[in-house]
DNA sequence: GAGTTTGAAACT
DNA sequence: CAGTTTCAAACTC
């Protein structure tokens, strides 16, 4: 509450905070103060995945067993409750909308409450809420929400651009969570929008339309942006995918390494939002929103309103970045909405956003299951059989999860570790590659040459590293042997020239070219999912992954898609037991862009593979000078293992 | 859409 | 911990 940001924000608004009045029909503040996280294990690269679990904001309360039910119960008390048949109904957008509406109300009511407690001193502490991954959304979102609400209450046409600009200038998203938080703010704004949507969105849109004329892209109606973000939320959980963080915006390029702390310039925020929305909406909103017709209605107009400016902006950016930068095949397949793809994983990747598993025998209780592995419940789009990965089987899920984690504490951590240019292990040739991330464990490919998505490294949009045990690695993102992309042509000659390899080569060359072209403007690893040259993760981290985005899609993916999947409730005991293990790698581009952050992580390295290439146990805690090692400058970048609150306090913080 | 290939995960 | 099996995604046809 004493933070400069708060002071500043307060100074911006003439409206004084009002104490919340408990409303039994709404989620209590408490419910939102302890965001749940299925991922009790560390999220190495991002928190984007957590977005998928927005649904369970209220599930973080002490009783994990009734969260879903309570939500559903609550949802039934709302108007326009759609018919929902199965236990995954909570995943429906409508439900989420209602939930968000509740959140919004709650936020509005509790302007002066809890969130402030966690956002201590932003100037000194990484803007990572202490409540946990989702908590960041609440914390940051609430404050920003206040800003919005204050303005909203006073003005007919809130100056969101300036507000956001102010906020983004003040907030240093030093962590993926923070990034997520800001995005969540946008999402909450979206929820706000939706709350009003049925009543007056048309009116507002028209207002904006008339107002935005001279302002071009920056003047995009906030409602529209919010709605678009809703779309992102649904479909783009994984913002942090390898490489998706790039745009032509130099400022952002420099500042925003995925999952890294990120000073988000106001303009960047807008562009990012727009671009993300644009890109995503083009493929996702229009294609994948069948489940959210009510939203789609609003989106259509909003998007159409935006589209012109978006296209213009996009074109400009594209031109700036590079004339004719070839789009990576993987990206193409995602962004061009290839109709041929049987299963285009718009959100695939570590970040994995919208997982849709197809498990038949694993009951979705093993890591085979992408949903389970991603820490989310299976949802309707899944084609799984005998699925136990549903809220109604929470106990089983948690037990299984615990068991798996006992075997491998990082089993649920993002597979792609985002870091700076260099990998920690000295002598890692792979660190010389442009890839800015590595698979935490490395792949073991034998036949795919690490050129197909069978390869987790490739899938994660990262190069192979010394950790990999792959054979004949030709990973376009960086070879295991450390050969640079530039060397690939030569090595290709040296290598076998079988028909197979030739085929691979053509693909490789394409990617190599792309990388070369992009390397100047886009220093980070390209992601198969997002077009780096167009989309810069606003504040992201993950998936996760994404190519595949995981990482933005987060690796971890995540990135991205705000799927309506539930966030599994936290395994408290497990989480607590691993608090110290929670960490994430943060790439810092230039320390001048952000203040030093404290390094708490006891884990010096994330290597989970022995030098001999054999798979070994995941990293365990080691007391060492990890911080100094990781935090040391390296080519102008710093790799920081930043501890993250693995589990939020269950008590409201004031 | 069915069948095959692939490599991670799980098991022994 | 190496080898094998199981599994589901990725891929091909």
Automatic annotation (TrEMBL):
UniProt main location, coarse: nucleus
GO CC field: nucleus
UniProt feature coiled coil, ranges: 296-323
InterPro entries recorded: CRC, Tesmin/TSO1-like_CXC, TSO1-like
Record's subcellular location: Nucleus
UniProt keyword annotations, A-Z: Coiled coil, Developmental protein, Nucleus
Segments forming domain CRC: 353-478
A molecular function (GO) term: DNA-binding transcription factor activity
Annotated Polar residues bias: 22-45, 56-69
Alphabetical list of Pfam families matching this protein: TCR
Biased composition (Acidic residues): 487-496
Compositionally skewed regions (Basic and acidic residues) per UniProt: 75-89
Family: Belongs to the lin-54 family.
Protein name: TESMIN/TSO1-like CXC 2
Protein source organism: Arabidopsis thaliana
Primary gene name: TCX2
């Amino acid at each position: 509450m004493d933070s400069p940001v708060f002071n500043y924000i307060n100074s911006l608004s003439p409206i004084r905070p009002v104490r919340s009045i408990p409303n039994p029909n709404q989620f209590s503040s408490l419910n939102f103060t302890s965001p749940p996280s299925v991922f009790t294990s560390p999220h190495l690269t991002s928190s984007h995945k957590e977005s998928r679990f927005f649904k369970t904001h209220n599930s973080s309360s002490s009783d994990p067993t009734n969260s879903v039910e309570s939500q559903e119960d609550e949802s039934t008390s709302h108007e326009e409750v759609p018919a929902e048949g199965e236990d995954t109904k909570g995943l429906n957008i409508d439900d989420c909308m209602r939930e968000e509406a509740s959140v919004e109300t709650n936020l509005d009511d509790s302007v002066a409450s809890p969130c402030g407690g966690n956002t201590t001193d932003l100037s000194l502490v990484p803007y990572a809420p202490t409540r946990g991954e989702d908590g960041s959304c609440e914390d940051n979102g609430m404050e920003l929400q206040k800003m919005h609400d204050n303005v909203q209450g006073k003005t007919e046409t809130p100056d969101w651009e300036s507000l956001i600009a102010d906020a983004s200038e003040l907030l240093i998203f030093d962590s993926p969570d923070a990034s997520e938080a800001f995005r969540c703010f946008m999402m909450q704004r979206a929820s706000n929008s939706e709350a009003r949507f049925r009543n007056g969105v048309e009116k507002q849109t028209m207002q904006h339309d008339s107002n935005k004329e001279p302002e071009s892209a920056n003047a995009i109606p906030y409602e529209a942006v919010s709605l678009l973000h809703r779309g992102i939320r649904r479909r783009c959980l994984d913002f942090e995918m390898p490489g998706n963080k790039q745009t032509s915006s130099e400022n952002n390029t420099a500042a925003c390494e995925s999952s890294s702390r990120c000073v988000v310039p106001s303009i960047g925020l807008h562009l990012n939002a727009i671009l993300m929305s644009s890109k995503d909406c083009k493929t996702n909103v229009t294609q994948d929103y069948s489940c959210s017709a009510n939203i789609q209605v609003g989106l259509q107009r909003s998007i159409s309103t935006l589209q012109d400016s978006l296209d213009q902006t996009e074109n400009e950016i594209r031109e700036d970045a590079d004339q004719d930068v070839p789009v990576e095949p993987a990206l193409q397949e995602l962004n061009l909405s290839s109709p041929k793809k049987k299963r285009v994983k718009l959100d695939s990747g570590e970040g994995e956003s919208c997982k849709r598993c197809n498990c038949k025998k694993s009951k979705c209780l093993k890591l085979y299951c992408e949903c389970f592995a991603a820490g989310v419940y299976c949802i309707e789009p899944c084609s799984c059989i005998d699925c136990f990965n549903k809220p109604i089987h929470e106990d089983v899920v948690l037990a299984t999860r615990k068991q798996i984690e006992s075997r491998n504490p990082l089993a649920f951590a993002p597979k792609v570790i985002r870091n700076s240019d260099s990998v920690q292990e000295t002598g890692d040739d792979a660190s010389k590659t442009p890839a800015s991330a590595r698979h935490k464990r490395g792949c073991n490919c034998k036949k795919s040459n690490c050129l197909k998505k069978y390869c987790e490294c490739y899938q994660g949009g990262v190069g192979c590293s010394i950790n990999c045990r792959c054979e004949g690695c030709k990973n376009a993102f960086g070879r295991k042997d450390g050969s640079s992309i530039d060397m690939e042509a030569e090595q290709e000659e040296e290598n076998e020239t079988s028909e197979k390899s030739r085929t691979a080569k053509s693909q490789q060359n394409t990617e190599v070219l792309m990388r070369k072209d992009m390397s100047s403007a886009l220093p980070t690893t390209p992601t198969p999912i997002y077009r780096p040259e167009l989309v810069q993760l606003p504040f992201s981290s993950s998936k996760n992954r994404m190519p595949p985005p995981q990482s933005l899609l987060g690796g971890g993916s995540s990135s991205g898609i705000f799927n309506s999947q539930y966030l599994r409730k936290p395994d408290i005991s497990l989480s607590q037991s691993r608090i110290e293990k929670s960490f994430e790698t943060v790439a810092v581009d230039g320390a001048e862009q952000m203040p030093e952050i404290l390094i708490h992580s006891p884990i010096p390295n994330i290597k989970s593979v022995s030098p001999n290439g054999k798979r070994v146990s995941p990293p365990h805690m080691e007391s060492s000078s990890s911080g100094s090692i990781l935090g040391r400058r390296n080519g102008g970048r710093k790799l920081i293992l930043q501890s993250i609150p693995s589990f939020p306090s269950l008590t409201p913080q004031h």
